[in-house]
Design a protein that fits this description.
By secondary structure, this protein is mainly α. It has helices spanning about 1-5, 10-25, 30-40, 45-55, 65-75, 80-95, 95-110, 115-125, 125-130, 135-150, 160-170. α3 runs antiparallel to α4 (about 45-55) and α4 runs antiparallel to α5.
């Protein structure tokens, strides 16, 4: 129902559905925040408070999907340093290219080149590349970015190439 009302641009009704889902089902606590940020509508502050409450109630024993949610939450709330730490922890636990690329980009955003370069290392290892063969697009984007920064920041990253890679990825 939420999607239908969103499609009709009935923002109040759509938000009511997504808010209720987030409030009632703990595993969906982030849905309201994502909806607010994605649509540009709704009570972002209340959604962020609910999500923060959910994330802090989970403590430190977070699984990979909860770490991903927490990292995205920190990105959406303009806390890139906290997001970096979460994505670094997630990537060290589970060497998933998706998590690693987020950490790399956050480290670059924060000017933490040593951390960024350390995060790049697994992407260059053949065993890593073979294990995550289902993510060739992410590995290719990481390679392009690594080559760009390897030139002392003087390299150019062609964003049209990045867009082409993203567009060619299976959905």
């Amino acid at each position: 129902a939420q999607d239908c009302y969103e499609g009709l641009k009935d923002w109040k009704t759509s938000e009511r559905y997504v808010r209720n889902i987030s409030q009632r089902y703990r595993g969906n606590a982030m849905e309201w925040v994502w909806w607010c940020h994605r649509t540009g509508h709704g009570n972002v502050r209340a959604a962020e408070q609910l999500a923060h409450k959910h994330l802090t109630a989970s403590g430190t024993a977070l699984g990979s999907s909860q770490l991903l949610e927490t990292g995205v939450f920190h990105i959406l709330t303009n806390e890139p340093a906290k997001a970096l730490e979460v994505f670094r922890a997630a990537f060290s636990r589970k060497k998933d290219p998706y998590l690693g690329l987020h950490a790399i980009l956050l480290a670059e955003q924060l000017g933490k080149s040593k951390i960024r370069d350390k995060l790049f290392r697994p992407f260059a290892v053949k065993r890593f590349r073979t294990r995550y063969w289902a993510y060739p697009e992410l590995i290719e984007i990481a390679d392009m970015f690594r080559e760009s920064v390897a030139q002392g920041g003087q390299g150019t990253l062609d964003l049209s190439d990045v867009e082409r890679i993203i567009d060619s990825a299976p959905t």
